[in-house]
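Final report, closing paragraph on structural work. Over the funding period we assembled a curated collection of sequence-structure pairs, and we close with a single example.
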Amino acid sequence: MPSSAYLSLSSVVGLLSMAIQIAACVLLLRERSAATWMMIVGTVISTLGKLGSLTSLVTWWRMTGQGYYTIVYATVSFGSLLFLAGLLLYAMQRRALAHRIAELEAILADQSESP
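Its predicted structure, as stored:
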C-alpha cells in the first residue's frame, strides 16, 4: 500500500508542477523573448514526459524493463531543466532592464538638478 500512496502523491505533485509551469508560461506569453520560448518548450517536453509516465501506470503490464521509465523520467527532467533555464534567463533580463531604468532615471534626475 505505501507504494500506491507514493505513486498517487507523486502524480499529484507532478501535475501541480505542470500546472504551475503552464500558468507561468501563459502569464509571460505576451513577451516574445527567447526565455519565454525556452519555458514553453520545456513545459511541453515536461508535459509529454508526464503523460508518458501516466500512460505507463495504466499499461504497466505491457512494459518490461527499466528502459522505458528511464526515458520518461529523463524527458520530464530535461523539460523541467529547460523551463528553469528559461525562467532564470527571464529573471536576468528583467534585472538588467530594471538596472537600465534606474540608470536612466538617475541621468534624468541629474540633468534636472543642473542649471
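The two ends are 79 Å apart (CA to CA). Residues 2-86 form one domain. We thank the funder for supporting this effort.
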